[in-house]
């Protein structure tokens, strides 16, 4: 008899394998989790295991209190960050999130290391979110000493509160000095959003290299591109 969490582990495994396929991380530099809100658990990549060695059975299932429910290996070291985001965004009904991803993709990390949000320069960016890609401040020394991964999640949540951001609409963020996190309605969609974040970060860097004086895209163009793909009157794609 298979595990009652088999479907969740399969979803997490398939999404984690997309990380190297989309060139979002090398070696062990990333993780995806798959969340089941009804059961109150998520499956996540085990810590420090290279992608070619991953299997469905190596995925680790964790509950929303941080307890390991199933799995022989230790969960990702970033598990507590995922835990905070699920508890604050999904459980409290602020966003429909069933997947979270963290990587160290180079262009997004470069912006995080510069402690700068990614400016909204063009329509590729506007197709996905209507604002710059936010970047949190550095974690304080106290936060790092207290519980680093948990406080990383708290830093993201606090930044969204401070800025008034809706995590349903802004589904990606940079943590200063660290790197990107993204989420979505499915784990696969979270990976998609992480890939978008990386490409937009690359485009923004090239834009500033070509034109250091570049200015953000006008709001009326931003709104047009975002709303043609999102919202009640969206018309992009097939019905």
Description:
The chain is α+β, with helices and mostly antiparallel strands and 239 residues long. The longest helix is centred in the last third of the chain and has 24 residues. The protein is globular and about 55 Å long.
Overall mean pLDDT: 96
Calculate the terminal CA-CA distance, rounded to whole Å.
40 Å
Low-pLDDT ranges: none
Share of residues in strands: 5-15%
Decide which structural class fits the backbone. Answer: alpha+beta
Spatial ordering of strands, largest sheet: 4-3-2-1-5-7-6
Strand tally is: 7
Characterize the overall form.
globular
How many H/I helices? 7
Largest sheet entry = 7 strands, antiparallel
Helix content: 40-55%
Give the quaternary arrangement of the chains. single chain
Sketch the topology as an H/E string, one letter per element. Answer: HEEEEHEHHHEEHH
What is the CA-atom radius of gyration, in angstroms?
18 Å
Write the layout of secondary structure elements.
Blueprint: H1 6-21, E1 30-36, E2 41-44, E3 60-63, E4 68-70, H2 79-91, E5 99-103, H3 106-113, H4 123-126, H5 141-163, E6 172-175, E7 179-184, H6 187-210, H7 219-227
Antiparallel strand pairs: 1-2, 1-5, 2-3, 3-4, 5-7, 6-7
């Amino acid at each position: 008899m298979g595990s009652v969490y088999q479907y969740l582990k399969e979803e997490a495994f398939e999404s984690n394998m997309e990380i190297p396929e989309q060139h979002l991380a090398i070696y062990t530099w990333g993780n995806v989790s798959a969340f089941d809100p009804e059961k109150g658990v998520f499956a996540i990549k085990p810590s420090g295991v290279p992608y070619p060695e991953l299997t469905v059975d190596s995925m680790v299932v964790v509950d929303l209190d941080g307890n390991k429910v199933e799995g022989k290996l230790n969960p990702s070291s970033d598990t507590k960050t995922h835990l905070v985001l699920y508890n604050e965004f999904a459980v409290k009904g602020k966003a429909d999130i069933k997947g979270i991803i963290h990587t160290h993709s180079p262009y997004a990390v470069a912006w995080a290391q510069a402690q700068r949000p990614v400016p909204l320069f063009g329509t590729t960016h506007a197709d996905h979110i209507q604002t710059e890609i936010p970047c949190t401040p550095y974690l304080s020394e106290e936060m790092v000493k207290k519980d680093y991964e948990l406080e990383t999640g708290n830093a993201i949540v606090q930044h969204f509160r401070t800025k008034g951001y809706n995590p349903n609409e802004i589904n990606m963020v940079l943590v200063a000095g660290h790197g990107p996190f993204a989420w979505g309605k499915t784990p696969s969609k979270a990976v998609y959003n992480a890939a978008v974040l990386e490409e937009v970060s690359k485009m923004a860097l090239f834009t500033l290299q070509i034109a250091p004086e570049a200015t953000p895209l006008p709001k009326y163009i931003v709104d047009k591109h975002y709303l043609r793909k999102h919202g009640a009157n969206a018309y992009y794609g097939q019905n």
